[in-house]
Every structure is written in structure tokens, then in C-alpha cells.
Amino acid sequence: MTEYTIDAEPAIAAVTAGSEFDVFDKDASQRLKKATAAQIASYVRSTITGGGISEVNTAITTAGAGTLTAAALVGGVITRSGPTASYTDTTDSAANIIAALPAGAAVGFSWELSIENQTAFAQTIAAGTGVTLSGFTQIGGNCNGRYLATYTGAGAVSLYGLWTNVRGINNLSATTDPGAGNDNTQGYGPGSEWINTTNNREWTCVSAATGAAVWSFSGAVLGSAEPAGIVTQAGASTGSFAEEGNINRQMSLAGVGNGADTTDDVLFTYSLPASAFDQAGRGVCVTAYGKLAANGNNKRVKLWFGATVVADSGVSTGNAVGWQLSADVFKVGAVGSNTQTAQGQSIVGGTHGGVNVPPAPTETESGAIVVKVTGTSPTTGAANDVLANFFQVNFMN
Q1: Closest CA to 74 of 89, 87, 90, 91
Q2: Helical (H) or strand (E) element with 66
Q3: Which CATH code of 2.60.120, 1.20.1530, 3.30.390, 3.40.1350 fits the domain covering 245-396?
Q4: Are 166 and 140 in contact (CB under 8 A)?
Q5: What pTM was computed for the model?
Q6: From the CB of residue 337, how many other CB atoms can be counted at a distance below 10 Å?
Q7: pLDDT at position 271, please?
Q8: Cα separation of 283 and 224, whole Å?
Q9: What is the DSSP pairing of strand 322-331 with strand 369-376?
């Protein structure tokens, strides 16, 4: 009697396939069954390699539709490059695949194989003669597919798609947010991650369709700004609204007063960042309030957007009364047209100054725009005739 250990596959495979062996348990104390040489070789192969095939990578670079050769399929790893559009690869015939299997492979022999689609385009797998294909049959651009291949009978092989990852490349060092052009042609796919290191934002690709990629905002580092396009659902309706809120607020309990002159002195000021008015509909709501000195001097308060006065109290002799100015300013017209519209109003004491005719500022939208409130004692030049206690700018996306 000849004994073989489990690592003696070549010797087992060399024995006539029909020969039978006694199979014992690991301590040789009990005979378990009889098995043919082919059955034992298949078992050994499966035990040692985890699927019967020592993986060998095959690179296929056909520019268009190609053939997944028997050697490539049996090798266990295929890397695919070359196509410049979606393409279909067809497997070799079952007969050729069976012929390429290791010596002694019997019906029922199976192995797993990986196909790595290194192109930016979808790869469809088609069955060759005698091959039955099921499960996943398409691998996305820059994605992998895993398949279970089985020698199912004479001239027959099955190929079952176990899974495919649909994730493309990641960009973890971008300096801008992604857009529609960051698509499958650049290697991105659903699930790709994008990190804007300038604004500390993270994005996930939802669709990488050519020229129409869709990216979902995943979040921002605490304290960093969310993108302007974020909208909130209006209740349970189909409506939505852009975010808005305070961008600057300044206060003084004692009040900030004008100087001892007759010019417009800045009481509070804020520089609206460049490109805040990057498209129509962006806007600010500015509010300021304070009080007038206890005297009969002429006094005046103005609210400015850049070089344009958008709210004006007019000359007032208000004596120890409060004042409030407010204005809305919105971007109108084409991107970069430097066109805005505004409306302001004023209240001094118990007198409402009415609503002014809407001014039309023309501030440069690609640069910073100064928003401020000024006060003056236009006739006597007395300091602190106008005091400002509060100033805020709310931004609307």
C-alpha cells in the first residue's frame, strides 16, 4: 500500500483517475470513505489554495470588446484596461476553460476569480459557448467584480457573479468642492469620497454619469462652513428653502458715537466677503439701532452698502430719542454683472421715515463689499450726537 500526505497533490493527480483510495481521519484511526484520485486531488487543491487555483494575474488591454481567455479565467485575476467607452467582454468557451484547469480537475471543481475594471467605463460580461452566466454581469468603471466559476459537466462551466464594488477612486486632497464634471471619465464612481481640504468639507459621489456627476455633501469639520447650495425641506411639503442666518453682529452698551466734526463717521462696519453675491438671489438684511443725544442739534444716520446709501434718517433734531435703520440688499442679474437692488427704511423716535425709492447699487461682486452705519452732527459738529448700540448683517442664500 502506498501512503500519500495531503500536500502530495502532484503524486495523487498522477495516479489513474479511476483508482480508489482509502481515506482516513487525521490520526489514521478510522477509515472514512473511499475516493478516486481525481476527487482527492480536487479536495487537496481546494484545501491548500482556498478555491483550487493559485492566482495569476492576466492583463487584457483590448481597446474595445474583448475575450476573457480560458487561461485568464483559470488564473483567477484579470485586470482590464484599454476601452474608451462602455464595452462587453465574452468568456472563452467552456471546453477551453475545462482544458485549462489543473490536471485531475473533476466535475464539481470550483474556484473564485476577480475581474478589475481599470477603465472609467462600464464592463459587461457575456457568456461564451457552454458557459452559463448568472448573478452580477456588469462591473462599473474603476470597480472590481468577484465570480464563482464551477466545472458543472461535460463541456459546461457556470460563472456566478458574487459581488461587485461600485466605488471609484477617492480624492482626499482636493482644494475645491466637486462638480458635475468630476465624473466617471476621471475615475470616480458611486461611493467615491472627496475631501475639500481648503473648506474642510467631505463629499460622496452618488452618480458618476459623464458630464452629470452628482455629489452628496457628507459634512464639514466643526466650525467650517457648509456649501451655499444646502436647502431645507419646508415642513412635510415638496418645497424647500436655502439656509440663512447671521453673518455678523456687533453691540455696544455705552454706544459708539460720531466724532466732533460734520462728516459721516463710521459707527459700525462689516466687510462682506468676496463672491458672497455670486448669483442672483443672494442677499443681506442689515439692521442698526441706537439713540440721539439730549439736545436740539441736527443729527443724521445712514446705512451704506458699499458706496450706496440704502437707508437714511434724514436730518433730525430728535432729542434723547431712539433710532433704527434697516435695509434689504439682493443680487440681481447675471453672474458677475455687479448689479444689486435694495430697499431701506428709518424710524427716529415716534416718526417713521417711510420707505425709500429702491436704490440700485453696483458694487463689484467679486470683491469684498463694505456694509456700515454712519452718524454725523452735520451742522454743529458735536461729538456723540449720534450713538449706535447695535448692528447686524444677516445673510440669505
Answers
A1: 91
A2: strand 66-68
A3: 2.60.120
A4: yes
A5: 0.60
A6: 12
A7: 98
A8: 21
A9: unpaired
